[in-house]
Amino acid sequence: MLIKHMRTVGSANIGQCVNNILRRIMIDELAMKFSYTGRASNGNTKTPFHGSEISKYILIAVQTFLGDIAIEVKYGSLASKWFQQARTRLLRRTKSRETTPHEAQIEDNSSSK
Which residues make beta-bridge pairs with 48? Predict the structure, then answer.
């Protein structure tokens, strides 16, 4: 059932497919606690996503959706990048919420004077 659902969020290419699936199953606050391999760039450890059951199901869904194009190495690389960007996505989303449309209009008007 989960694989069927994941296949419906696919895309024409593997990068968009992996991003679409991960975005729908995991919020960025949780994604920040993972890395694909379990290692973080700052030397700390994170929970490894590779080898988890959900990771295996995502790979199966991507392979089913895209066929032989979706090899495991490519999937791992794409998933790794997605986890690395979790903090950036969260900060960007938080910043966009802090600036309301009304405040943005005021800022635009004052900068054009």
Answer: 35
Please give the DSSP secondary-structure letter assigned to residue 12: S
Return the number of other C-beta atoms located less than 10 Å from residue 21's C-beta.
Answer: 26
* CA distances, 65 to each of 21, 71, 82 (Å): 12, 12, 19
Rounded CA-CA distance 98/50 in Å is 34
In this prediction, the residues of the chain whose per-residue pLDDT falls under 50 are 104, 107, 109-113
Residues 99, 100, 102, 107: what is their CA dihedral angle, to the nearest 10 degrees?
10
Q: Give, in degrees to the nearest 5, the angle at Cα 65 between 64 and 68.
A: 65
Angle between helical axes of 14-25 and 53-66 (0-180°, round to 10):
140
The reply to whether the predicted model has a pTM over 0.85 is: no
Q: What is the rounded distance in angstroms from the CA atom of residue 40 to the CA atom of residue 36? A: 9
Structure tokens at 25: 């199953």
